[in-house]
Amino acid sequence: MTYTWEQRKFSDFTFPAGERNKDDLDLEPFAITNNQGFIAQSEAHDDFGYMKDVDRKMYIVVKPNSFAYNPARINVGSLGYYEGAENVIVSSLYEVFQTAEYVDDKFLKHWFKTKAFQDWIERLQEGSVRLYFYYDKLCECIMSMPSVEEQRKIGAYLDKIDNLITLHQRKLKSAKCR
């Protein structure tokens, strides 16, 4: 069966999902790394003590199944997808969004790794010394999107390939250590 792909603007299928932690909830702080995506700040930084003195009310609550990124570092891959079961918090610098029901997040996660997305960032980022790519700019991006069923198949297939690559990288590293 052949599915048609439609051009979709991000403003049509994403929506802002981050809210300030105004109730000062005691949620675990996370960061987003270029290679690992979402990671607990305790794992990302050697000295975790500084969080004790930070005003957590300024942080953004991230719900499960949300994307988040640093608008000043998205050009180097600082974008992640949070698959955890509990809410967490991230720096107020991050942009947080979720997607409509007809979007498979795994498919979209892989699309964010493409040259097409990098081209959008280069075209739409703004600033002089430091370039930024805020959520309003993301909403201007356009991508070709198949049906959600096809998205699921593509996302699952690309996940399998990623897992296979990771497995072979581990084997290679293990063989080099011997």
From TrEMBL:
InterPro entries: Restrct_endonuc_typeI_TRD, Restrct_endonuc_typeI_TRD_sf, Type-I_RS_S_subunit
One GO BP: DNA restriction-modification system
Domain named Type I restriction modification DNA specificity: residues: 74-173
Gene3D superfamilies, per database record: DNA methylase specificity domains
GO function term, MF aspect, one: endonuclease activity
Keyword hit for DNA-binding: yes
A Pfam short name: Methylase_S
UniProt keyword list: DNA-binding, Endonuclease, Hydrolase, Nuclease, Restriction system
Entry similarity comment: Belongs to the type-I restriction system S methylase family.
Protein name according to UniProt: Restriction endonuclease
Organism field: Ruminococcus albus SY3
